[in-house]
Design goal:
By secondary structure, this protein is mostly helical. It has helices at residues 3-8, 18-33, 44-57, 68-80, 82-91, 136-145, 154-168, 170-182, 196-212, and strands spanning 105-108, 119-121, 125-128. It has one domain (35-209). It contains nine helices and three strands, in the order αααααβββαααα. The protein has a three-stranded mixed β-sheet, covered by helices on one side. The longest helix has 17 residues, at 196-212. It binds zinc ion.
Length: 213
């Protein structure tokens, strides 16, 4: 995802040149496509509220685990799937060390951390609260953070929907997507930036329109 920008970026342009402004354009474009991936995780609150609405609607279709062992078993099933394998191997493009992260550890929370969360992840492993976090959706949410999405931005939601569709079914994925859409949260493929030539042609065109006014 991020690599496309690296390949478009112009190496060390002079300040004030079109090439310089093009790099600025790329930076802003990247930020817009995946809020959270760079800087503040600004869509987290909306993402949570979409998830809560979804979970209460679809609670009947979300498997519950009786203990952490069951959650670990379910995680293994996820790691073996083509869906997981595909997203995981793509995530290596963004960070090669993720090659060692094909099957993140799933742990039970040992003592209360004071955080009122069902689960959390440091991007390498997952911890589930054994009172409120032993269900397939919480596990899938946290595992999605282990695929190179340390935020709740577009790429997080896109990968989340793929896993939800594969493991909880298409109806669940549809319901979750609807909640995202209601809150104007994009979850499709990120839009590609313009190439320098496209961007520059548009800029020149704008300038000539302005001159005519
Ligand atoms: Zn999260």
């Amino acid at each position: 995802m991020t690599n496309i920008y690296e390949s478009y970026r112009i190496d060390r342009p002079y300040y004030g040149t079109p090439e310089h402004y093009y790099n600025e354009y790329l930076r802003k474009h990247a930020k817009k496509q995946n809020k959270g991936a760079r800087g503040q995780d600004s869509e987290r609150g909306k993402c949570y509220s979409a998830e809560w609405a979804f979970q209460s609607k679809c609670s009947g279709q979300i498997p519950k685990f009786k203990d952490i062992k069951e959650a670990q078993k379910y995680a293994k099933k996820i790691y073996k799937s083509k869906t997981w394998q595909k997203i995981w191997s793509e995530s290596i493009n963004g960070d090669v060390t993720r090659i060692f992260n094909a099957s993140p550890e799933v742990n039970a929370k040992l003592k209360s951390s004071g955080r009122g969360t069902a689960g959390w992840s440091n991007g390498r492993s997952v911890t589930l609260d054994t009172k409120v976090g032993l269900d397939a959706y919480t596990l899938i949410h946290e595992l999605t953070h282990c695929l190179g999405n340390m935020h709740h931005g577009r790429s997080f939601r896109k990968d989340l929907l793929s896993l939800v569709s594969r493991f909880l079914g298409r109806d669940c994925a549809k319901a979750l997507k609807e909640e995202f859409k209601k809150r104007k949260l994009a979850c499709g493929e990120a839009r590609k930036p313009q190439t320098f030539d496209q961007w520059n042609a548009a800029r020149v065109r704008m300038a000539s329109i302005r001159e005519k006014l």
